[in-house]
Design goal:
Layout: H1 3-8, E1 15-17, E2 29-31, E3 69-74, E4 79-86, E5 105-108, E6 118-123, E7 147-152, E8 158-169, H2 175-179, E9 185-196, E10 201-211
Length: 216
C-alpha cells in the first residue's frame, strides 16, 4: 500500500462500523484510531446536480495517481453521480452526503483515490428521507463483472469490475476486507441495507471491485 493509504488507514484494525443509519441515512461508518483529522471534509468538490457528464475521449491518458474522483458511473444500476469529498465528523464517524432531493455519493478523502494502490471508499445513501430513493438505492443489485467508472479530476477514468456484493450485519462488518492492505487499486462502495426499524438500517451493503480488464 502506498504511504498515502497507510496514513489514511492508520489503525485499520480498529476501524469499526456503528449503527449510524438513521431514518433516510445511507451509511454509518466509524473510523476509530484516526482522531479528528479531516473532520472538515464534505466540501462539495466535484459536486453538481446534472444527470449528464462528458464522455471520456478515446485514447485518454491513464488515471493520474492520487487525483481525486469527481464523478461515479455505474451503468448497470443507472448511477451517474458527482462525488462529494467526505472527511470525518466530530464524533469520529465518516461524514455522509447531505440529505437532499439531488442525492450524491461521496468519496472518503482519507482513502486512496481510485486508480491508486489501496481500497478507495465511496459512500452513498440508500434512501434520503422524504425525498425517496438515494443514489445507491439499487447497489445490492450489482453482479460480478458489472462495470464501475470513476472520473478523476486529472487524467483518464479509473475503471473497475465488481468482484463481490455482500450484505452484512453492522455488528459483523468485515473491517479488514474493506479497509485492509491490498497490492493494487481496488474500490469499495458502501450503503445501508436490510430491515429498517424506524431508527436505522440493520445491515450494510458492500460492493468490492477490482481494476477492469483492458478492453483492447
Amino acid at each position: 500500500m502506498s504511504p498515502f493509504s497507510r496514513r489514511a488507514f492508520l489503525g485499520a484494525a480498529a476501524v469499526s462500523l456503528v449503527a449510524g443509519c438513521g431514518p433516510g441515512d445511507g451509511t454509518g461508518v466509524r473510523t476509530e484510531g484516526e482522531g479528528g483529522a479531516g473532520s472538515t471534509g464534505g466540501d462539495g468538490s466535484g459536486a453538481g446536480n446534472s444527470g449528464t457528464s462528458p464522455s471520456a475521449p478515446a485514447g485518454s491518458a491513464p488515471p493520474t495517481a492520487g487525483s481525486p474522483p469527481v464523478r461515479l458511473l455505474i451503468p448497470a444500476i443507472h448511477v451517474d453521480t458527482p462525488l462529494l469529498r467526505l472527511g470525518l465528523a466530530a464524533d469520529g464517524t465518516v461524514q455522509v452526503p447531505p440529505i437532499t432531493a439531488h442525492d450524491r455519493a461521496g468519496w472518503y478523502r482519507h482513502s486512496p483515490a481510485p486508480g491508486q494502490t489501496g481500497p478507495s471508499v465511496i459512500l452513498g445513501h440508500v434512501t434520503v428521507g422524504s425525498f425517496g430513493d438515494g443514489v445507491f438505492r439499487h447497489l445490492s443489485e450489482l453482479r460480478r463483472g458489472d462495470t464501475i467508472e470513476a472520473r478523476l479530476e486529472k487524467g483518464g477514468p479509473a475503471r473497475f469490475e465488481v468482484t463481490a456484493v455482500r450484505t452484512v450485519a453492522k455488528s459483523a462488518f468485515p473491517t479488514q476486507e474493506v479497509y485492509g492492505d491490498v497490492d493494487r487499486p481496488e474500490l469499495r462502495l458502501i450503503t445501508c441495507g436490510g430491515a429498517h426499524d424506524g431508527d436505522g438500517y440493520a445491515d450494510n451493503v458492500i460492493v468490492f471491485a477490482a481494476p477492469a480488464a483492458d478492453p483492447t
